[in-house]
Amino acid sequence: MIRCISCGEEYEDNEIIYTCKKCDSILEVECNVEGIPRDTFESRRQNIWKYKEFLPVNPENRISLDEGGTPFCKCEKIGKELGVDLYVKVEGSNPTGSFKDRGMSVGTTKAVDLGVNMVGCASTGNTSASLSAYAARAGLKCAVLLPAGKVALGKLAQAMFHGAKVFGVDGNFDDALKTITQLALDGELYLLNSINPFRLEGQKTIGMEIVDDLGWQSPDRIILPVGNAGNISAIWKGITEFRNAGYIKDVPMMTGIQAVNSAPIANAVKKGEETVVPVENPDTIATAIRIGAPVSAVKAMNAIKESNGTADTVTDEEILDAQKYLARTEGIGVEPASAASIAGLRKLVANGEIDKGERIVCVVTGHVLKDPNVAIDACEEPTQVSSDPKAIREVIRTM
Ligand SMILES: *Cc1c(COP(=O)(O)O)cnc(C)c1O
Ligand SMILES: [Zn+2]
User: Fold this and answer.
1) Can you give the pLDDT at residue 52?
2) How many domains is the chain partitioned into structurally?
3) Quick one: 274 and 347 in the same domain?
4) Contacts of residue 268, Cβ cutoff 8 Å, sequence gap at least 6
């Protein structure tokens, strides 16, 4: 069953629908799982289908690249420096290098189930990279709309290479999303942006894996970057479903981090307001969260409120600094948007919002190679030398 999150109107699972016909609000897939003991999952392979009872599609027909089951790294050094018990969930290790694969696996499985032949999305990059790959695997035609000139090189390469029809659209992500949504409503394609509630069903497995990774315990807090706000909503849904199933008792404080000039949700939270006012011309070096009008704002605000969480902003400088810090302290290479979670952690520790000793999971959402230009620009040029060992010896002895 699909249900409107605002008025509660219900729709059949096989209806192609993105917003409520009665009140225009966004939808979610209802998940009623009962009577499945926790140890059911024990000996299963580590991917999103480990929790297949909670996924509202037929697992026999899955379109899968073995997504999920990502590394869960304890970060002793950063944790010690900040006085917290820190873990990092490395979503860049998914098949196309971001958490979007979890959503696209379930989303394209649903597309095949519905019998559509064309899928599409608007994207800041990773959604298109992922959808292009999963559409190829499913044998579906795929169209993607990108804000022209604003997509990181690695993501663009992936979208093109897996065979999607790629359009560079005048305007920003929010404009591109409006356009592709119109095409979807006209029946031209099946939309796989995060307004599609089946995609979020795949992404909720991040929350499920985190509590499983911790031996069926909730962390005190989960921190993640927020753009269109689908992922924070999805993770919260996964966590609450596991709580409702009786697998865990406590829940984490959901903590969303946005870039300072693309921060409609953090702005609302800080002002104590319920409604999220879109930001007109969002801007940040973290292109994956360069979004002014988050589609899942209402869900995200609910998640933050219900979990007693919060949201905050970080500057581009803080993001780039955190990206390098994580790479050079813990060996984890992430794209700029992902580093917002670490930058946010640092800020919230510094201003006292985070208590000493909290058990925290930072979700790092995409791989460093997604945005090679940013990575290269952040580093010194290679030192040019002859092939003579002596020249190199002189340098490395000073290291
Ligand atoms: C999509 C994406 C985000 C933002 O997720 P939302 O669900 O849009 O809030 C953050 N980081 C990366 C790397 C992404 O690809
Ligand atoms: Zn409604």
Assistant:
1) 98
2) 3
3) yes
4) 274, 275, 276, 277, 301, 311
